[in-house]
């Protein structure tokens, strides 16, 4: 039943050799990996205006120089990540770059930040998408959390089906969104150039504004740079590309950067010319669209594709999180299960964990995850800074041909990223303080896991081990619950192993029972020694394990091993199990975890 | 940790021989077993008025004759159950009586109804108690479900601690409630007799009322008889009494009946004289108390003890449900686990199941379980009818001295109970229809479980079995994951058993890996045969079990048994388990449940 449902939702299992077929061409990769970055256009420009509006509408012209700053940062990031793609074509992004050039802990800080960040990506993007839908259809508002969670489940299933298939599904909305924004920006610019937009709507560039400060401008700049979240996704996902991986990934990165630059500048310019002020109930993009087209089909097309791409932006998290998890797991910092490919060759465990955690975030914040945006942005800029600093170190150390130019690019990127990160801490501390709590905890967990894996490897390694002591003989203990077929079956098996000794153990709860059973046993199995262990506490686990421990201790002296044979009858139908007491499971767990006796289960299958 | 918590909440384990000390004396038994019946006074009279008010206030005088009818029914029930206590002093109540005299299925109908009913008792009583509290403190209203669930948890813990201790806790509130109502009724009657209550408040007895019908009166009567739920509790719990059990139980029953009769009549009479009409927001008892005392300390004392006893009424369910479950489980109709006494000698499984199911009911109905009252009442009157019919049959069959009188008592009881049951079906079908759905399902489940237990007993019985075929030899299969200490340990054990054959099995996921491992193995363990099973599907369970099935099939021909030795390393700390994949568990489960190979687990304890 469960297995049928799994087949239906996820599809048939794929062979490992089918992996190549799952790889991405450039067009699909652009769709699957850039929805996060591109969707940021829907809220990035607005973040700038939200800061500037605290001074007044007169300050709006500052959005133009600030946008230029963001574009410079974007250019620096794109160029820097392009260099990373070629230098680290096996993928890994900020984690690998920081680890290899700066050391283990900077690497783990970058990796940990990103790991948490992808969960935030999913929660924030899906919630924002659900917001967009419920804004369009207010009657759905009270079901917002349910809608968001359904979307997370759908995207999780799509990703469990496999990368290529989800890419096919996701390609259209992303390209439709790009198309919609290009039409909007084109029409808007045409209107401005043909003089259809009244000049009094905006203050001209350079107008002096009272109360403006460098602090405020930097704050607006850092807010606006939240539009750049998601640009690192491609460098993490290089192994997902068709070969030549690095070259394809680099081209895709440039294409994404160009699209993002055009769309971001377009929205900022239109907002400035239209003199749009941020409003709580209507987004800036929506205001621009309404002023350009009115509330017609085109308006709804733009709003619809925006909502869709916000939901799909979550998919970037689904592509990047499992791959980063694999890198961390291979280095033994998180559980090994993240390295295993599922039936459809995706890293199922990473996909499922990401889905579950983001649903928890959505549920806990009741879908109001907007307040997580600064935390999300700072979680992106920490690894940006680290990876670019790492690249600086790399060029300085290796000094390849033309390294000076590369070094300068990364230095500029690192500096701007660092400033943005600092701006977040200085201007938005109340929202980003959890970084200082969760990052140390995460680092501690990474450390503990790593230590454990190293210790296990040490203990298992055959070369380092003392000589095994040969086992001289075996003692077999058979707990019996009565004189039945099941017990007989187990005794026959015990005899066939020819051990040094067989002991049957019976635990009576009443004194009278004890004598009666001993009598019966003597008649039935006179050759096998029976030990009875009376207990007044109605639990057989305690006296039995105590007895076994004693025997085991004596046997160890003779270099004998103790095997406990547990007769277990297996009912014909699963539900029958609740009708029988499961003390055999308890005994087995207790013995295996607390002592070193061997536990053998002899099944007795019921036929009806 | 869990075990510490358990000790703290439940107390130290008790010996079976300490059972006697846990038994109840009459005073405690009255408190523990009658809270359900006595608390019914809080809503029974009101139910009558709710029906009469549909005709008008003039019809209220009919509550007096109806109450007399209820008192007759109560007397019949008490006398009848007194006879049951002496006839069936080992306990069991309606289930045992119906089963022994009417046959298996009537017995199961009675048992099934009561089983469900005790769950309803807990849910309804606790919800009503929480209602009373939140009525007193309206600010708590939004937390009603949480409050109710906390109470269920507390009562569950009290009961897991053991019967006597919970009785000590519960005795005071019950007696305080009785005291409170006696003061109320006494003061009220004094006011009436001294002429302090104006006569115009009530219409005099016998006033003709337009629109009254026999149907309506019977409906009011059946509603009022919901005050009698709970009177069967004592007869189910006879084994809990100190000896002489039957005599003590009978005395307790009479005392309870007398208290119930006085309190019920008192409330009905006061309500009639005060001319009280049922209101949605204030209970009838509260109205009487307010009119008698005003809103002073005495009023809050009455309201407080009423709330408390409603919550404690749930405790009756906790005393009766596990004992009924034991009876059903001994007859093999429900899982055997209900017959086991816990650490504190209570039937823990029954207590826990009851707690969980009633919490589910409270959660699903959001604490508004009042609508379950008719269903609850009908679930009580079905077994009332069956058990008294059973007693009729018993007297007719056995004809002991003075049987005629006993027969008449039970016949009257059976007839009235039957009429009440029918009235519920006729007048409140929309609320009691679930009986017709759940009772058949429950009977089917009882039947299926019984059939299974019978089948198992048949198969296990040693006398009926064919001669066991002697095992001629053993084949041992060791799945190996690498060349490690854990594997070596398992191989040494396999060798010590001197089987006919040892086969090591390795499942590589890649072709290259296969050859490399075979080469290594040949150098390491040249004497042990290695089989490699390449798979492209990244799961070792499938190919491994297929291989084992094949070997098992061949071995069966030679009368050899196949043992699979699973090496398992046990980490030092519990949380380490999530860091390792649990395929050994999967393999074990698959092998045991689907084939008849023997599975041996060889533990390898990690030291760090």
TrEMBL record, chains A, B:
Gene3D superfamilies from the UniProt entry: Amino acid/polyamine transporter I
Pfam families associated with the record: AA_permease_2
A GO molecular-function descriptor: transmembrane transporter activity
Protein name: Amino acid permease
Cited InterPro entries: AA/rel_permease1, APC_K+_Transporter
Keywords, in A-Z order: Membrane, Transmembrane, Transmembrane helix
Any one Gene Ontology cellular component term annotated for this protein: membrane
Source organism, top-level taxon: Bacteria
Major subcellular location class: membrane
């Amino acid at each position: 039943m469960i297995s049928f449902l799994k087949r239906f939702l996820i599809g048939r299992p794929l062979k490992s050799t089918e992996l190549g077929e799952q790889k991405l061409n450039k067009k699909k990769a652009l769709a699957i990996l850039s929805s996060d970055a591109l969707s940021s256009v829907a809220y990035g420009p607005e973040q700038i205006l939200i800061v500037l509006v605290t001074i007044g509408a007169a300050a709006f012209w500052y959005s133009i120089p600030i946008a230029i700053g963001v574009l410079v940062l974007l250019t620096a990031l794109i160029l820097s990540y392009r260099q990373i793609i070629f230098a680290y074509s096996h993928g890994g992004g900020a984690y690998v770059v920081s680890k290899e050039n700066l050391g283990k802990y900077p690497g783990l800080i970058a990796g940990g930040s990103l790991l948490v960040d992808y969960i935030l990506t999913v929660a924030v993007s899906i919630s924002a998408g659900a917001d967009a839908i419920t804004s369009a259809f207010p009657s759905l508002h009270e079901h917002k959390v349910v809608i968001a969670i359904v979307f997370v489940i759908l995207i999780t299933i799509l990703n469990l089906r496999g990368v290529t298939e989800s890419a096919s599904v996701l390609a259209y909305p992303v390209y439709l969104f790009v198309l919609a924004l290009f039409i909007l920006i084109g029409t808007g610019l045409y209107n401005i150039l043909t003089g259809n937009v009244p000049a009094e709507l905006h203050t001209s560039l350079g107008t002096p504004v009272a109360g403006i400060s460098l602090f405020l401008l930097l704050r607006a700049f850092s807010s606006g740079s939240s539009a750049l979240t998601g640009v690192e996704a491609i460098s993490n996902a290089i192994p997902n590309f068709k070969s030549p991986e690095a070259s394809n990934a680099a081209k895709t990165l440039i294409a994404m950067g160009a699209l993002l630059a055009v769309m971001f500048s377009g929205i900022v310019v239109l907002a400035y010319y239209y003199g749009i002020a941020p409003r709580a109930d209507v987004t800036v993009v929506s205001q621009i669209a309404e002023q350009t087209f009115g509330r017609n089909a085109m308006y709804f097309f733009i709003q619809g594709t925006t909502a869709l791409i916000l939901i799909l932006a979550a998919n970037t998290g689904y592509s990047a999180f499992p791959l980063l998890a694999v890198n961390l797991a291979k280095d033994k910092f998180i559980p090994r299960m993240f390295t295993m490919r599922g039936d459809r060759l995706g890293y199922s465990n990473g996909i499922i964990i990401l889905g579950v955690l983001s649903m928890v975030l959505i549920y806990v914040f009741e879908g109001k995850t907007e307040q997580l945006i600064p935390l999300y942005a700072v979680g992106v800029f920490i690894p940006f800074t680290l990876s670019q600093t790492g690249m600086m170190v790399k060029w300085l150390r290796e000094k390849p041909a033309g390294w000076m130019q590369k070094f300068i690019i990364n230095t500029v990127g690192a500096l701007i990223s660092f400033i943005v990160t600092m701006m977040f801490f200085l201007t938005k501390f109340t929202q980003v303080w959890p970084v200082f709590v969760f990052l140390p905890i995460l680092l501690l967990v990474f450390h503990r896991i790593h230590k454990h894996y190293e210790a296990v490897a040490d203990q298992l390694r055959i070369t380092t081990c003392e000589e095994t002591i040969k086992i001289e003989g075996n003692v077999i203990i058979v707990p019996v619950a009565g004189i039945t077929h099941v017990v007989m079956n187990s005794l026959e098996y015990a005899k066939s192993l020819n051990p040094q000794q067989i002991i049957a153990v019976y635990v009576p709860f009443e004194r009278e029972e004890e004598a009666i059973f001993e009598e019966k046993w003597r008649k039935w199995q006179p050759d096998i020694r029976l030990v009875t262990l009376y207990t007044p506490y109605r639990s057989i686990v305690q006296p039995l394990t105590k007895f076994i421990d004693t025997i085991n201790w004596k046997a160890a002296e003779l270099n004998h091993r103790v095997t406990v044979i547990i007769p277990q009858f297996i009912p014909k139908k699963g539900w029958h199990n609740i009708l029988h007491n499961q003390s055999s499971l308890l005994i087995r767990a207790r013995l295996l975890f607390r002592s070193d006796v061997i536990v053998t289960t002899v099944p007795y299958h019921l036929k009806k």
